[in-house]
Amino acid sequence: MPKSKRNRLVTLSKTQKKTKEHKETLVSTLRKALDEYQSLYVFSYENMRNSLFKELRDKLKTSSRFFMGGNKVLQIALGKTNADEVKDNLHKASELIEGDRGLYLTNLPKDEVLKFFGEFEGHDFARTGSPATETVELPEGPLEQFTHDMEPFLRKQGMPVRLNRGVVELVANYTVCTEGDPISPEASRILRLLGIQMATFTLTPICYWSNGEFEILDEEEAANGAKSANT
């Protein structure tokens, strides 16, 4: 009897080696970037969307560079203590790399960077489990934005609908989601069909570093980071 593929042993040595090399490359790349860019910011993010973030990186690639993923690796690259930091006071920034955070290195002036962070927003559809930012209610009656062939799908999402002379119709008022409550999988699909975007992708600068100068920019976010590090 031939051996089952399910019983084959898979070695992880290559994967482990690749992961270690990736981390070492990230450390080396970040340290090199510290010599190429004048300033560094630790930032937090909410509702990250890869497509929107890619657009942002492309827009700023001539003057700036983002580093994200592997917070512990980023901390090692900067130095976690006063003794092993690669430049003066960088360990203070390293301490704030916790949770949903990243590094932004740039040659742009500080005031321009803070203006950019303050104005940047990206909008997208909310994901399942995220809190609804508003209550969405649909009144009883025709739903002319939906074609007749969507009626079975809408009914499957829990909407009380029927076809009336080829028009999708709600037979009762229906609440898609309630402000503050987690969005269900069904509500997420319906909101997407309605074109209602509730997720706002934002970046918040927490601290600034340049040539040994360190400054906290957001006391509340910095305190949250310190609290996470100590738990």
Automatic annotation (TrEMBL):
Keywords: Cytoplasm, Nucleus, Ribosome biogenesis. Gene3D superfamilies: 3.30.70.1730, 3.90.105.20. It comes from the Eukaryota. Transmembrane segments: none annotated. Its main location: cytoplasm. The keyword Nucleus applies. Residues 126-196 form the Large ribosomal subunit protein uL10-like insertion domain. It is found in: Cytoplasm; Nucleus, Nucleolus. Associates with the pre-60S ribosomal particle. Belongs to the universal ribosomal protein uL10 family. This is Ribosome assembly factor mrt4.
